[in-house]
Amino acid sequence: MTFEAFRQSLQERRRYLDQIGECKDLKKRHPERFKSWTITQINPLDYMVEGSHVMNPGNPSGLAEVNERFHIQLPNDMDQFYREWNGGYLLLSVPYELLSAKEIIEKNEEMRLGRKEPLLKPWNIVRFAHIADGNYIGLSFVNSNWHILFISIEYGDEELSGKIPRQGIPVSFSEWLEFILKTDGELPGIWEKTFQRIP
Fold first, then answer.
1. What is the CATH number of the domain that holds 168?
2. Core vs surface per residue 83-122: b (16+ CB within 10 A) or e
3. Looking at residue 170, what is its pLDDT?
4. Is the separation of the CB atoms in 78 and 63 below 8 Å?
5. How many domains does the chain have?
6. What pLDDT digit, counting tens, does each position of 81-126 carry?
7. pTM for the structure as a whole
8. What's the pLDDT at 4?
9. Nearest by Cα to 137 from 175, 88, 167, 176
């Protein structure tokens, strides 16, 4: 897996109308990390952000820590991706915050503790990308395979366990990544565009 389309997207600078000020707030909190972004206020409420994805350096061990902590084996394509980029922020019309390997562990344990679900029960739901408002993209272990799953904040792991992913969502991590690059982040029928693309 070479992730060639993703590599190419890293070189592209895109412009979006951010009507919620998310990018402005991100740059204010982490000025060094998002220094490549140019943010312009175009009226009292709206901002234009110009930039590209902001990725973390790769993790040499990929997702080994996640696998070990949760006693699972996540897909090889996802592990390879994390060896090159240990999470980051995908600047698309639907922005995605890809959690680092450490953050994947912390967030999934936090979600279980918040719902008082046993930490040692089988880990067949793993969140890895935050969309907004506590909603995530994750992986669900169904029929001996991992599948991409939209994880609403409204449901706990027990309710999601064993669920077949919605029709129209790509099955594998690499397919999902390729899909959102083509749709500029949108998941039709599931999550509509947050930012407006500016030509």
1. 3.40.1580.10
2. ebbbbbbbbbbbbbbbbbbebbbebbeebbeeeeeeeeee
3. 67
4. yes
5. 1
6. 999 999 999 999 999 999 999 999 999 988 877 665 555 566 888 9
7. 0.90
8. 93
9. 176
